[in-house]
Design a protein that fits this description.
The structure holds 2 protein chains of 2 kinds. Chain A is mainly α. Chain A has 2 domains: about 80 residues, no CATH class; about 200 residues, MetI-like (MetI-like fold, Orthogonal Bundle). The longest helix of chain A has about 40 residues. The N and C termini of chain A lie close together (about 5 Å). In chain A, about 40% of the residues are buried. The C terminus of chain A is likely disordered. Chain B starts with a helix and ends in a 6-residue tail after the last helix. By secondary structure, chain B is mainly α. Classes of the chains: A mainly alpha, B mainly alpha. Chains A and B meet through α1, α6, α7, α9 and α11 of A and α4, α5, α9, α10 and α11 of B.
């Protein structure tokens, strides 16, 4: 087990310079504002005196290293600045809106995996069949689809034409009351208090945006699953297992699939990078009250502290997700830690 | 001398291979035809457009497709077909400029890091890792917000998030050939480091780079259209596919589908073309990576 522990702690250590780099870049972004940042942070109605005061508050009259030290100090105490449009600290704004985004992202990731992984496995076991062609079409179309356009088309078909879906405005229809916040995930919160009509309403709102995001996400996952399964199935140990007379099912799942899962887990990192970006577009289309639409609203009114806070928060979230993926990898990789047992 | 003797058969076999792949895979041929259509739209779109893309005419606002207006009209009575045609130039220009910038910057940085190694390599590697540590679309949003909301800054932001892919590719290709026989021979023949790097080693990286360029163009168009969809960069009333989908999205809930559908389809067509082209080029350049 010590080999696995050492690998895990080494991986956590490797995340430290990345986090430092992310903080440096986001500092440069906050100081690269066109013109005088103090003018922007002071707001449009500010006069000379208040701009000078803001400049002093932000420490803009000091040297760059000093400014960076102040910035890092503020970050460590959780201060991302104040949003001009809401008047609240950016951190609390982000915290109240993050569960909505996470619920959407996680549900669509689960949906995408539930479709893409079986599809990729089936396509790899039956090359040249109709399911292989279906997989190839989905993969090529999936990466060519602009997420915001897919969302608009789905709204037209399922809301306007067929009337299956509720109006695409937020997480819950206005006739329902949001469940008491425990986790911030409406599906979980409603289930906790046993309010199943709210649960169903929240699910109905979630289906279209989650499908939009999943359609975009399943392409890279299906592509990777198919390629990884193909290369695993052509490996020598599979031939040996078959020759030894193991059942087809055992060979497929216990031998090939377990090994094919490793590159798929690795691609999840890249998938998350795309998802966190596509999330912004999907939230805008469906008026989903998450961090993405918060950033878009802030952009429209030039609320820079909110935008930069969002960028930094997403980057840190992405670093954390990548770390988590690598840790999962080291847990499921049969080669790590076996020598020490 | 030896190079001159070896060159003709090699290029002929490459051409033969290209023709073989094209015959074998008609999809690539279709992709080239689609690309030609896109180029035609970008070059001659404003000339062949039947209406002025900016002229509003409220008498015919929000009319469905008809013989006079093939793709219908939008809320200001502008002809959607003309706007989709004219937008091709702007969308292609943004993505080509962004990809060209990242190609050049990525090549220079990657070649220097791969050839000389040392601190250049370490610093560049750290910088690229940091850029890749951001979700790329979100980083592009942050860059445009910081630099200012304009079309040039969309191009710079897209170029910055694309650069790591090129720099890493060139670095790897240059690094494995740094001490190859032909590079050492060129050095011994009296060529300077810079000359060996630029004319002997770097050209080997070009084939995989072309594949990357093609796949990247599609992604850059999506990225730029996404940014203008959320209100960054290109602004109304300029005709651009992302902006047009954003405008059309307001009318989709009342059933006017044509305002958003046609620019969206044009966008998909462009991205699909570059992806097909990239896959086809990869089959020609590197048959081992065929999927």
């Amino acid at each position: 087990m010590s080999g696995r522990l050492r690998a895990i702690s080494l991986r956590i250590l490797q995340a430290v310079p990345v986090v430092i780099g992310v903080v440096v870049i986001s500092f440069v972004l906050t100081r690269a504002l066109p013109g005088d940042p103090a003018v922007y942070f002071a707001g449009p109605a500010a006069d000379e005196a208040s701009i000078a005061q803001i400049r002093k508050e932000l420490g803009l009259d000091r040297s760059w290293p000093e400014q960076f030290a102040i910035y890092v100090g503020a970050l460590l105490s959780g201060d991302l600045g104040k949003s001009l449009s809401t008047g609240q600290p950016v951190l609390s704004d982000l915290a109240t809106r993050l569960p909505a985004s996470l619920e959407l992202t996680l549900v669509s990731l689960l949906l995408a995996c539930a479709i893409a992984i079986p599809l990729g496995v089936l396509a790899a076991t039956r090359p040249g069949s109709w399911i292989d062609h279906l997989c190839r079409i989905l993969v090529t179309a999936g990466v060519s689809l602009p997420t915001f356009f897919t969302g608009v088309v789905l709204i037209y078909v399922f809301y306007y034409l067929l009337g299956f879906a509720p109006s695409p405005l937020g997480r819950l229809d206005f006739i329902y009351i949001a469940p008491p916040a425990t986790t911030g995930f409406y599906l979980i919160d409603a289930a906790i208090v046993g309010d199943w009509s709210t649960w169903a309403a929240a699910l109905r709102q979630l289906v279209l945006p989650a499908t939009t995001l999943a359609l975009f996400t399943l392409a890279p996952i299906a592509r990777m699953t198919r390629a990884a399964m193909l290369s695993a199935l052509s490996a020598d140990f599979i031939r040996t297992a078959r020759a030894a007379g193991l059942r087809g099912r055992t060979v497929l799942f216990a031998y090939a699939f377990r090994n094919a899962l490793l590159p798929v887990v690795t691609t999840l990192g890249m998938v998350f990078s795309f998802m966190l970006g596509a999330n912004v577009l999907v939230e805008k289309v469906f008026a989903w009250p998450g961090v993405g639409s918060y950033a878009v609203e802030a952009l429209v009114v030039s609320d820079y502290a909110a935008v930069q806070g969002f960028v930094l928060a997403m980057a840190l979230l992405f670093v954390a997700l990548n770390l988590l993926i690598d840790l999962i990898y080291s847990l499921i990789d049969p080669r790590i830690g076996f020598s020490a047992q | 001398m030896t190079e001159a003797m070896h060159e003709p058969p090699r290029s002929r076999s490459t051409l033969d291979h290209a023709l073989y792949v094209l015959r074998d895979n008609p999809v690539t041929l279709i992709a080239f035809a689609m690309f030609a259509l896109l180029l035609f739209m970008a070059l001659f779109g404003p000339l062949v457009a039947p209406y002025d893309p900016l002229a509003s005419n409220t008498d015919v606002a929000l009319k469905p497709p008809s013989a006079a207006h093939w793709f219908g009209t939008d809320n200001l009575g502008r002809d959607v077909f003309s706007r989709v045609l004219v937008a091709a130039r702007l969308d292609l220009m943004i993505s080509i400029a962004a990809v060209a910038l990242s190609f050049i910057v990525g090549s220079v940085l990657g070649a220097a890091a791969g050839y000389w190694g040392g601190w250049i390599d370490t610093v560049l590697g750290r910088l690229l890792d940091t850029i890749m540590a951001f979700p790329l679309f979100v980083l592009a949003m942050g860059i445009v917000a910081a630099l200012g909301n304009s079309v040039e800054n969309i191009i710079y932001a897209t170029a910055i998030i694309n650069t790591p892919f090129y720099a890493r590719l060139v670095r790897a290709e240059v690094n494995i050939r740094r001490n190859a026989g032909f590079a050492q021979a060129a050095k011994l023949a009296g060529n300077s480091d810079l000359r060996v790097l630029a004319f002997h080693i770097f050209p080997n990286a070009l084939p995989p780079m072309m594949v990357q360029v093609s796949l990247n163009l599609g992604w850059s168009i999506l990225n730029a259209a996404g940014l203008s969809f959320i209100g960054l960069g290109v602004r109304p009333p300029t005709a651009e596919w992302g902006v047009m989908v954003a405008e059309g999205a307001n009318f989709i809930v009342s059933g006017e589908w044509w305002v958003a559908l046609f620019p969206g389809l044009a966008l998909m067509f462009a991205v699909f073309t570059f992806n097909l082209l990239g896959d086809g080029l990869r089959d020609i350049v590197d048959p081992r990576q065929r999927t």
